[in-house]
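Newbie here. two chains, one complex. Structure please?
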Amino acid sequence: MPTSLIEGSSLLALDIGSTTTRASYFDVVDGRYRFIAVGQSPTTAAAPVNDLGQGVRQAIADLEVLIGRRLMDDDKHLILPAQPEGTGVDNLVSILSAGPAIKTVVFGLLSEVSLESVQKLAHSTYLRLVDVIGMNDNRQTHEQVDAILRQMPDLILISGGTEGGASHTMKKVLEVVGLSCYLLPEDKRPAVLYAGNQDLADEVKASFEKLVPMLHFSPNIRPSLEIENLEPAEKELASMYPRIRQRQMMGVEEISALSGGKLFPTSFAQGRMIRFLSNISEKATMNVDLGASSTTVSGAMGGRLSLNVFPHFGLGEPLSGLLRHTTIEEAMQWLPIDISADIVRDYMYTKAMYPATIPATTEELAIEQSLARQILYLAVRQALGNLPKARPPRAGLMPNFDPIFASGSVFAAAPTLGQSLLMLLDAIQPTGFSTFILDQGNLLGILGAAAECNTLLPIHVIESGAFINLGAVISPLSNAGAGTLILRARLTYDNGEETMVEAKQGAIEIIPLVVGRTGNLRLEPVGRTDAGIGFGRAYRVDGVQGSALGVVIDARGRPLRLPSDAARRRELLKKWLWTVGG
Amino acid sequence: MLAPVTHIIPLTTIIRTRMLPTAGTIQVRSGDKVAPADVVAETTIAREHILIDVAHALGVPPAKADRLIKCSRGDKLAKNAVIARSDGIIPRSVKAPREGRVVAIGGGQLMLEVGETPFELRAGYPGIVAQIIENRGIVIQTTGALVQGIWGNGRMEYGLMINLAEQPNHVLQPADVDVSLRGSIILAGHVGDEKVFRNATDLPIRGMILGSMAPSLVPLAMQMKYPILVVDGLGRRNMNMAAHKLLSTNEKREVAVNAEPFDRYAGTRPEVVIPLPVAQEPPLPRDLEVFAPGQIVRLLRNPRQGAVGTLEVVRSVPVILPNGIKAVCADVRLESNEQLVVPLVNLEVLG
């Protein structure tokens, strides 16, 4: 009988998404932390409830049934910490992405310096930029003030001025912010984060402290023209996030208090975990999260993290605006069946109105998956310039990331894991060798939050198999014509057996490697093919883990080009779908 | 599981709050009877400002300019009123470029709020003033039929409802919008042709209640001066039977159309209120429901999107749908007697 090696304490993690609230329970089993179960409920941030607390209590009640343990008392209050008689839980952490994107105005000076950096900062969480004001803004001061008064932002981010640099122009910026805040009704004044020239910090404090409800400072995000330092400001912004939400939504204050301040924006918590995993594996690691109200693309390498949240890309409300960013033809290009543009448009508007609904017919599932591909493709392409500078094999292509985590109900609830992987391959279009991991229970963000109070738990849970390994994917690059042999792959299983596959340009090949088995993979490019480490260079990957699909060779080329003829394209999409198991 | 609710109720008590955009004066008292067109509150809105750099204009340091400014915060200034005058043999003065109100003074500058325009808040619904919200608005209580929609163009109007939708699958054609409809609120099925809206503008009409509308018409509908309210959704679909029956049986009655946009977080929804006299106050609508057998539900997604039926059983075990997705479902018997297994998240309760 194994004995616990750790002083175990149970953990309840709340994940409050825009449509679903999940309550996940973790405890010690055989001396290691394990994910035990998840209860869920619709999120109740919206009318008529307008109180996150109700959805949270419902999700915890659902969890109580699953784990056979009382977590709440008769008054539906969480029992915290756990009691000797076996009720309650020791710790609570929470992540939050529910609610409309926070209306934000950003200020900076030079458009390619501080203004660019402050916009990157804004994209690290669930913000919607309603105005961008910089030195080159042609509007007069009063016009800028009027623009802010019209928008009534929830948050103002101020950047600009290098350390020790000139402060006169920054004072003009502060004048606009100060006047706007002064003229707004007191209950409508925004929170302010100052991340500019630190020489002015005292002046900012003296001017704004009594004017705005929340004033935070972070080190200068652009201390010099050459250096960008977003991380402290991202952390500060994450700490402001629950307090801004508190002003907008009931229940946040209660959850924040119960969590002992460990309430984070979901994107921030996911990012923290991605960076942690990247640090321990010393590999470029990526996460994509396609939600109902936003899409997050984060990448980490060498201790650097890039967080990119896109509130205009999502499979719920943002669908009504998707055609501002892409064409209907592009949104439909991934459909394996013939469906009219009108039906796809109708689908988008219906889903925008009812974001919690799911496709219940084959046609609607095809539309949803087609839109998911296009949304994720657009988000990944927009994030590409910000992702850590791993070496892209060719300009415009995705640099190599391994592993790539994915979450979002369109992937997690897909009828087959092959469909999940194919959607990810079509949208992300990875290069080189990448392991795709499906975060079916949305655990990544939870673990990132849990790390705040328990550093062992995330490691144990990841090692416990709570994530689904979809497959080890090799995406070779070649200019060869379709049907030309470009790569030989030989997998030697842990029992000594071997399987050899020859991949031709344009095809997907699969070498089975089931969960629980391992193998060594030898990749031999044919001709001018880059299998991940350069043109014509063969290599070995030892200890490839078994997974849902096994080893997948995606030899369809990068960028992936689909036939323009609709009938041919649909046939090809069907063929690829069939290859990954339908 | 908590169920989303859409109200389609033949008789209920309706309580609505009408708010000014900024603080103002309330024109009615608690207990007053109001008609939809009655002005219940007034204010002025000025969303334009002018920043006057007094120090620069007078050529003096900011601190001195502050001393030379002759007006105070809150003062109303006429056009060309003197704001500040410098000392000296030939004094220079700074005048107000427009009529306005001083909202800030400091640092040698003055900010003037200009372009004030009066704003009148109308009752929108016939009813009794149930509560006064000091300086901000009122609460109106009325009784009648209530039909909530899904999309609105932000306008509000009151008038006689004319029914052109004999059937829920009716399609409104441009030629149908003739002079006989002038000044009325049209009840119709689907609109897919922009000429319908243009013809209605030419008449003009007072409003439109539609079953559905082509998504491509959204930008044009937003520009129309009369309210356009969509009951079932964007795209080609029939008006749901419950709404069609309730609205069409009330044709030629005065109706209030509040086509305010659907906002999940603010809780606003476009709605039609048909005021009806009652002997006894009917109950308030239930905003919160948990899915349960016997409820009248509407299908939000295909198959049979928009169909109305009765929830028979909530399945205790998730069901694998024909497309392979696994979901918690309910058995629903449609009005046609067809029985379907529908994911709970694809249902809403009508009531």
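Moderator note: The domain at 102-248 of chain A is CATH 3.40.50.280 (Rossmann fold). Chain A touches chain B through 52 residues (CB under 8 Å). Thread marked as resolved.
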